[in-house]
Amino acid sequence: MTANRFAQIFGRLVLVLAPAALVVASAASESEKAAATKGMVKRSDLEIVDCLLPGQVRQLGNTSFLSQRRPIRTTTAECSIRGGEYVAYDRADIKQALHIWLQTAEGGDPEAQTNVGEIYERGMGVPPDFAAAAQWYQKAADKGYARAQFNLGTMYEQGLGVEKDQLKALNLYRQSWGLKEDNIIFASAAQREQDELRKQLEEAISEKDSQLGLLQKQLKDMQDKLSKQPVGEKTADNSKEVEALKKWIAQLESERNKSTERLAGIPKTRTPSGMSELTQIPPTADERTLSGMNFGRYYAIVIGNQNYQQIESLQTPKYDAARAARILADKYGFTVQILDDANDITMLKTINDLNAVLKPEDNVLIYYAGHGSRLKSGSMESGYWLPVNADAPPEDRFWIPNEQITGHLGRLTAKRVLVVADSCYSGLLSTDPSYLFLNDKVAYSKEYIKFKLPKRARLLLSSGGDKPVLDEGSGGNSVFARAFLDELEANQGILSSPELFSRLRKRVEVAAAKNKFVQTPEFKSIKGAGHEVGDFFFVPRQKPG
């Protein structure tokens, strides 16, 4: 589909944003209101839900039968059109989300099992059940399902529902990536983790040895002292102190033995000799291909929400968005759609409409500059993007929850999606552990790109974590936007998103400090959107001549 066709689809968005005056008048009757709004896109039509489609009528010889109902994640509008059943999203009851997927999961379907695991991991108005999440992920991972292997790896990396184990996490990531154990990329990362773990265990064993030596000496001195005391002078307190020391020593010895066993189990590997022979990619590439590798087409949605109706307006989003759109289009060949001062329907519909134009090898960048907020529900905390029609806190009408953004990202056909969020609490879009960095030496190798391109990527580059961020303070741009856009503008070669993050992070921290502010960008995967450890690459356009 051409860029013009893409623009035509987006151009229709303005038709659904008729002012309220066109929809209702103060004296209008209910029937007039219904007639006025008939055919308009409603916010509820764009919500992502777990939908249970009806079974298909199938013919086998002369016999007709109804197949089992099929669960999917889609919009409420599509679910209704296809005759599906869905539960209006209720954060207070996890059972309603499980209802859609559980039967298929119990039947052994790995995608459904992974979805059940994600439901348990996220929780919905109740504390997450990490142990149950890990068990469902394990069922799907045992079947070789890549998304489950990756999700289970994040559980081991953080120690959620399972005992924390960095090496096991890395091995699960390897399996989800489809890498062999002797692959250079995995072997170098595994070597680094093994060296770090070996160092930690050796230090722990040394510390336990020192503690044991002191306690054993203290126990011996106490026992010698007691043996010299007359029987009548011995007290129950002395005996209890001896027993307490013995228990303490036994506990330390048990911990030391576990560390020793774990140390002995770490394989002694060597960094592959071929590391230095990796083919380095050239500084520029053909517009969408490189050495026979297809990077796909590039699309961007750039949102600049600055002039709010109910909330204090911001200073820089429109300027940031305009500059981002120019750089992405001119330097990197993106087809760009700019949304200035967008309401909730515009934002969600624009993302949803991408499904009409995307192909599997395509790339999508969503840049958001505007207000962000957060709300707590029990022990859970959710982040929100605020459209320009959002009510002021604590009212959350028209706010767009991160879980809905994640749901839309999961439905996009594009292989690679990067969300760049410059707003307060933007880091809450993902609760995953920090992105697992591989060896910097292979970041630009042809092998690295060949390995990464086939994998789905759902990544978040945020201006800060769970904290407010600066709106201005850097020559018309926000502090984060200035660093992000300067790096893109100055870049001359193939740029991976981890490398982009490593370049801009320090710049943001330093610039924020000059404004007497602490701001630390974050780079994470968006696990609930189907991330499979892929990457997002910025490929500069080939210069004429």
User: How many structural domains?
Assistant: 4
**Order of adjacent strands in the largest pleated sheet:** 9-8-10-14-15-17
Poorly predicted runs of 5 or more residues: 1-28, 32-38, 270-286, 437-443
CATH class category label of the largest domain = Alpha Beta
CATH topology of the largest domain: Rossmann fold
CA gyration radius, whole angstroms: 28 Å
Please, what is the average pLDDT? 77
Helix content: 40-55%
Q: Specify the biggest β-sheet.
A: 6 strands, mixed
CATH architecture label of the largest domain:
3-Layer(aba) Sandwich
Q: Based on CA inertia axes, which overall geometry fits?
A: globular
By helix and strand content, what is the structural category? alpha/beta
How much of the residues is beta strand, in percent?
A: 5-15%
Short description:
This protein is α/β, with parallel strands linked by helices and about 550 residues long. It is about 45% helix and about 15% strand. The chain has helices at about 5-10, 20-25, 30-35, 75-80, 95-105, 110-120, 130-140, 145-160, 165-175, 185-230, 235-265, 315-330, 345-355, 400-410, 445-450, 480-490, 495-515, and strands spanning about 50-55, 55-60, 65, 70-75, 85, 290, 295, 300-305, 335-340, 365-370, 370-375, 380-385, 400, 415-420, 455-460, 495, 520-525, 535-540.
